[in-house]
């Protein structure tokens, strides 16, 4: 009798999951890379050279990136895959996001290299957490199940909570870690409660099943479903720092070690938006778009306006970049709001180019922060154009790209977003986005003016040293920002191909 | 006849979740705030289990396992950060922690 | 059969009985000992007991921060065990595949323990 029961149980879960490990290779490489790095450095203690963890991290990220390219071709040939009983979905959307995350790990590791040496911090744990965070992000990007999505989000968030509190000599770093932790835990709880409600209304946490269930049935408990959608949206809005759930962002970005702020702005945002698109556009798009789109619209408009206007009045450059990242989140929300394939590829393009722009910007900020990571006032940038012309030029390009000047990645990404909004009939939203871009341009100009036209020779506080690794990172970011602006075709093409699809688990 | 249906558990969970959420917003002691986070997550667990019974589906109960582990990991990390802060100052009050103000 | 007690209340009847029995028992014992024992109040009797030594300081004292790291390690490994129990009840069903998966899981936990050990967290010094 037991055997019969067991067989029933097995049949109900669709048999034992067969796992094709090669298809989840990017996540495995990143996670295993982190765990092995931790073991290797703890067993060998101090016998390894200083550069070892950084090189290891970068190799792991590059290896993961290679598997992404291989899987990209494979998915093109064999179609999208659903793995591990439908818990993970492999499509070009998730691969694009995973690739973006790998890029941000490479640049994050390079920035950390220079930062840790300057601040005399011991460092393998930083890199371990970086890799684990990326593994969480990739899990999120490929999640085909709400629980998997939640676990990925938590792996990512918990690693970043620790990272932002890792500079233990700086009180502001500890504070930022605590603040991020409390807000993040609050957000996770909301997201999870939303997941529970959607589970209650649809009877499954699998996105593909939810989608088919909603298409085939009339929901009897619509209130439950709507509550679930609203709560999940609040959770995601916290994670991407959309107004009015943004209060944590400026404080946390300001207090966290600068390379960590860079990673937070780039990778956490990328992964959170990937999860948001999977849940809202894919699973709930066909049936519930009329319900969630107004909410996303409100978030988008508020983020665009508040982000740009508040950034204008900041005097701390890290806070300024934090508010501007809120504005950028608003732009991506506009793309999500359109809830079309065009909007999804616009969001992907935006996320990749934002990764380059923001990593480069924070890279410059990390260098100008000087030893102690404390010189982040606008006045600390006076005369940078004279002392360090190269650095100032790079920062100028990053800021202009963020403002959306043509021939940079920023222009095209903003263009695609606004096009997707107008295409889905929201001309007004497109106009608001353009207005926000114009307001934000002033703020970037303020920094540029400070760098080139202010300050007398000889009033510098301390010399600015640019470590080799950081200049490589800034170089990569610069190349990415300019290439995406001048020859965007390959990436645009890839983003257009990267349509997401929910693949139902095989029965 | 008065019987306990799933709805009662769901309402209880909603109440616990609200207590946790409000507590997190109004209390200023970090340890109490952590307890509020636990309260919220466990309210979600209760919701999952009630739905699992109502739907006669094991998925909700499996979810609880993962939530439990995630909650433990979260608290361990949070306490670690608090201890690091407490080594530098002697208070667990968030209002004492305010280097950064917008 | 129509019973004035609803099903719910009836199922809680046992709980109520046991609870009241408990209260009565404790109350009875306290009452008996109050009847029998002599009563000679002295100031020293109100000092909190600390293994026969005179108590030092406040009752609310901070415990060493070292205890805390053990507590955290314990919580972590304790909670991870939650995944092992459901697997253990169905080992035959999952077969070699399940065994390997669980060994990988435990292996990763062990690597965490190795890290803690090499970091010197497990040593009391």
Written account of the structure:
The complex is a heterotrimer of chains A (507), B (102) and C (125). Chain A has helices at 2-12, 25-44, 52-78, 92-119, 124-141, 146-164, 171-202, 207-216, 222-240, 248-255, 258-283, 285-312, 317-338, 341-368, 384-387, 389-403, 409-423, 427-453, 468-486, 489-497, and strands at residues 81-83, 88-90. Helix content of chain A is 76%, strand content 1%. In chain A, β1 (81-83) and β2 form a beta hairpin. By secondary structure, chain A is an all-alpha fold. With 102 residues, chain B is mostly helical. Chain B has one domain: Orthogonal Bundle (Helix Hairpins). The mean pLDDT of chain B is 84. Chain C has four helices and no strands. Chain C has one domain (7-118): Methane Monooxygenase Hydroxylase, Chain G, domain 1 (Up-down Bundle), CATH 1.20.58.
SSE topology:
The complex is a heterotrimer of chains A (507), B (102) and C (125).
Chain A lengths: L1 H11 L12 H20 L7 H27 L2 E3 L4 E3 L1 H28 L4 H18 L4 H19 L6 H32 L4 H10 L5 H19 L7 H8 L2 H26 L1 H28 L4 H22 L2 H28 L15 H4 L1 H15 L5 H15 L3 H27 L14 H19 L2 H9 L10
Antiparallel strand pairs in A: 1-2
Chain B lengths: L5 H21 L3 H26 L3 H28 L16
Chain C lengths: L6 H30 L28 H16 L3 H6 L1 H28 L7
